[in-house]
């Protein structure tokens, strides 16, 4: 089986958390797109849900499938969000933002009673940081913001190249919120909480791709099958390690 098959398996498992009448957050990215496709089939079969997408790309996909859509202003509290991740460690801390939707993804996730993360097994890591950490920043004062990010990250024990993400034609990538993204190749992030706190002291930083204490359930599919992880179990293991 391919990673694409594993992504679909994880998405199928996530459907078991969806109940009729729920208000759902829909994630962004290749794995989340699998879930949206499957949800569209359920909606076509009669499932009643209303969904808040985390990006314009997800909005377009869901609309094309006939999934009822709303905004967080209309439904500020959601029952469940299903999203993917670029990395997930043993404590279910995440790096997200490879698709450029990290700000909306975090807003929607925090507005949800429960957050289910779906991924293929390649996204499991012992230590976060193999995937470059995305940071959403305002365009104004970009060079100064990048310089301060480097300084704050260094103080937090992280060092590495910071690149402005480029989009089509070599122009700076622009998020759905009109911002830019800096991709930070820090390598191993030994203390994600300290790094996240430090980066948020930089005025030009809108949000980081570190999702800490947000995921409730992780569904990981791979060669050994589908594994369901619980944040409660991760907390217990950490407290007793």
TrEMBL record:
Q: Which UniProt keywords apply?
A: Isomerase
According to the UniProt record, what class of enzyme is this?
Answer: isomerase
Reaction(s) catalysed by this chain, per the record, are: aldehydo-D-ribose 5-phosphate = D-ribulose 5-phosphate
**What EC number(s) is this enzyme filed under?**
5.3.1.6
Active site feature:
105 (proton acceptor)
Source domain of life: Bacteria
Record pathway: Carbohydrate degradation; pentose phosphate pathway; D-ribose 5-phosphate from D-ribulose 5-phosphate (non-oxidative stage): step 1/1
Q: What Gene Ontology terms for biological process does this UniProt record contain? A: pentose-phosphate shunt, non-oxidative branch
Question: SUPFAM superfamilies from the entry?
Answer: D-ribose-5-phosphate isomerase (RpiA), lid domain, NagB/RpiA/CoA transferase-like
Where on this chain does substrate bind?
28-31, 83-86, 96-99, 123
Q: Which Pfam families does this one have? A: Rib_5-P_isom_A
**What GO molecular function terms would the record report?**
ribose-5-phosphate isomerase activity
The UniProt subunit note reads as follows:
Homodimer.
| Family of this protein | Belongs to the ribose 5-phosphate isomerase family.
**Role:** Catalyzes the reversible conversion of ribose-5-phosphate to ribulose 5-phosphate.
Q: What is this protein called?
A: Ribose-5-phosphate isomerase A
Q: Source species, please?
A: Hyphomicrobium denitrificans (strain ATCC 51888 / DSM 1869 / NCIMB 11706 / TK 0415)
């Amino acid at each position: 089986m391919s990673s694409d098959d594993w992504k679909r398996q994880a998405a199928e498992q996530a459907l078991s958390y969806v109940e009729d009448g729920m208000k759902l957050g829909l994630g962004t990215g290749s794995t989340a797109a699998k879930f949206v496709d499957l949800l569209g089939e359920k909606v076509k079969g009669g499932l009643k849900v209303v969904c808040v997408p985390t990006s314009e790309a997800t909005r377009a996909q869901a609309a094309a499938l006939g999934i009822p859509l709303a905004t967080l202003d209309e439904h500020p509290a959601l029952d469940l969000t299903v999203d993917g991740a670029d990395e997930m460690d043993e404590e279910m801390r995440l790096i997200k933002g490879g698709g450029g939707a990290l700000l909306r993804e975090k807003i929607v996730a925090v507005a949800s009673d429960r957050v289910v993360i779906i991924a293929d097994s390649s996204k499991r890591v012992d230590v976060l940081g193999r995937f470059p950490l995305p940071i959403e920043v305002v365009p104004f004062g970009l060079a100064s913001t990048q310089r301060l990010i480097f300084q704050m990250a260094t103080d937090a024990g992280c060092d590495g190249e910071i690149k402005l993400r480029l989009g089509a034609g070599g122009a700076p990538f622009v998020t759905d919120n009109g911002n830019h993204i800096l991709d930070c190749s820090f390598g191993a992030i030994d203390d994600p909480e300290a790094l996240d706190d430090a980066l948020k002291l930089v005025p030009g930083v809108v949000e980081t791709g570190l999702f800490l204490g947000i995921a409730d359930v992780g569904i990981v599919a791979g060669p050994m099958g589908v594994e369901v992880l619980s944040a409660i179990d991760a907390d217990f293991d950490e407290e007793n390690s």
